[in-house]
């Protein structure tokens, strides 16, 4: 019989996308996949390539709120018991956790049953859930060469594999970046991210409107925008004579990335890694309220490699963004250098690297 890998993930696309990429790599190697998450994600992750989805009790909590912490603890304990019962039935060869509170019950069940366990951290700062479990798992993988706030005793067990991405994004690594031609069209892609998209929705149209007319006439903008901000964004772009496509979500992100000369977005781990694999120069705006400044540290990795400029929210204005846009869009040589810098930190084979680590860990058997 084919071996079963339980993938414990959920909460956001930042956890589910790399979990899905790993699952597809393992399936290609003959594995069977079971997704373990909270009830909400397990019910709606219909496109996830798992032959079974296990919905487990789990919830987050408010720090320094004893009632919230107590309720979360009871919910997670119940989820661990549910996962342990499910694992006795399906007997997984390995459990892989991707962080976030929905992954805790499944990974802890694997740990308490002495099953091979692997933890993957997507950000340059180890998340709080992963931090608590890192010392108990067999192997730890991470996306970036730096991993802040990781427990000191796991340093010799951390393997840098990168952040697994969707196959269509992976294919962009093999496509060259073509900087804009003098006087030619300038393609700008603005993404929103799962949190904090209001700033980009409202600030970017105003910043573009301040650009010189000859530059605006060359622009072709594709922007993810909050629904309540779409009409205003369209009005500002139209008044500035800028061609812009506005939508709440773009499903064909790979083709849009391939066409872009410059990208602007938040600095979630998935976003940064996708920009790097595509080799796209970027302006990154870390989410100011992100815990432990994980987005700021993700952005720093790409900026240190020369692939991005970082704009901090608390110091960002329309004029500052307009100036940054003008300087970059009028300097194709710099854009080409930034593209090379972004691609220098890319790990397009991250899913295969992580699959290798999972198989090596599974081969150890139960302790």
* CATH fold node name of the largest domain: Rossmann fold
Mean pLDDT: 92
Total beta strand runs: 13
From the spread of the alpha carbons, the general shape counts as elongated
Q: What helical percentage do the residues reach?
A: 40-55%
Give the percentage of residues in beta strands: 15-25%
What's the end-to-end separation, in Å? Answer: 21 Å
State Rg: 21 Å
Q: What's the CATH first level of the largest domain? A: Alpha Beta
Q: Helix/strand/pairing class, anyone?
A: alpha/beta
* Helix count from the secondary structure assignment: 15
Q: Which strand order do you get reading across the main beta sheet?
A: 3-2-1-4-5-6-7
Multimer state = single chain
Integer tally of domains: 2
**CATH homology superfamily of the largest domain:** Glycogen Phosphorylase B
CATH architecture classification of the largest domain: 3-Layer(aba) Sandwich
Characterise the protein shown here:
The protein folds into two domains: 4-164 and 348-362, Rossmann fold (3-Layer(aba) Sandwich); 170-344, Rossmann fold (3-Layer(aba) Sandwich), CATH 3.40.50.2000. Helices cover 44% and strands 16% of the residues. The chain is built from 15 helices and 13 strands. The two termini are 21 Å apart. α1 crosses α15. The longest helix has 25 residues, at 66-90. The model has no long low-confidence stretch (mean pLDDT 92). α4 links the parallel β4 and β5 (117-121). With 367 residues, it is α/β, with parallel strands linked by helices.
């Amino acid at each position: 019989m084919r071996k079963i890998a339980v993938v414990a993930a959920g909460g956001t696309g930042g956890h589910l996308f790399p979990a899905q990429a790993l699952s597809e790599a393992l399936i290609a190697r003959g594995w069977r996949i079971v997704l373990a998450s909270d009830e909400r994600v397990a019910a709606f992750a219909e496109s996830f390539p798992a032959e079974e989805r296990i919905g487990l009790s789990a919830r987050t909590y408010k720090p320094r709120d004893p009632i919230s912490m107590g309720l979360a603890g009871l919910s997670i304990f119940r989820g661990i018991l549910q996962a342990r019962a499910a694992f006795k039935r399906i007997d997984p060869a390995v459990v892989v956790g991707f962080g976030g509170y929905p992954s805790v019950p499944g990974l802890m069940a694997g740990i308490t049953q002495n099953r091979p366990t692997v933890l993957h951290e997507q950000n340059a700062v180890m998340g709080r859930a992963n931090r608590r479990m890192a010392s108990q798992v067999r192997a730890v993988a991470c996306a970036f060469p730096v991993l802040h706030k990781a427990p000191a005793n796991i340093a010799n067990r951390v393997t840098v594999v990168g952040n697994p991405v969707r196959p269509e994004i992976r294919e962009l690594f093999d496509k060259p970046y073509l900087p804009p031609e003098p006087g030619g069209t300038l393609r700008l892609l603005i993404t929103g991210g799962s949190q904090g998209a209001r700033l980009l929705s409202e600030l970017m149209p105003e910043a573009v409107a301040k650009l010189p007319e000859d530059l605006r006439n060359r622009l072709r903008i594709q922007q993810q925008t909050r629904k309540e901000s779409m009409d205003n964004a369209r009005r500002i772009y139209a008044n500035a004579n800028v061609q812009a496509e506005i939508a709440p979500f773009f499903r064909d992100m790979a083709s849009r990335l391939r066409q872009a000369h410059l990208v602007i977005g938040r600095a979630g781990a998935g976003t940064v890694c996708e920009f790097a694999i595509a080799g796209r120069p970027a302006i990154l705006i870390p989410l100011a309220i992100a815990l432990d400044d994980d987005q700021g540290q993700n952005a720093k990795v790409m900026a240190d490699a020369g692939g991005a400029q970082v704009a901090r929210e608390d110091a960002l204005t329309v004029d500052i963004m307009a100036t940054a846009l003008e300087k970059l869009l009028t300097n194709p040589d710099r854009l080409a250098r930034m593209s090379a810098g972004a691609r220098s930190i890319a790990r397009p084979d991250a899913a295969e690297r992580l699959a290798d680590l999972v198989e090596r860990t599974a081969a150890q058997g139960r302790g």
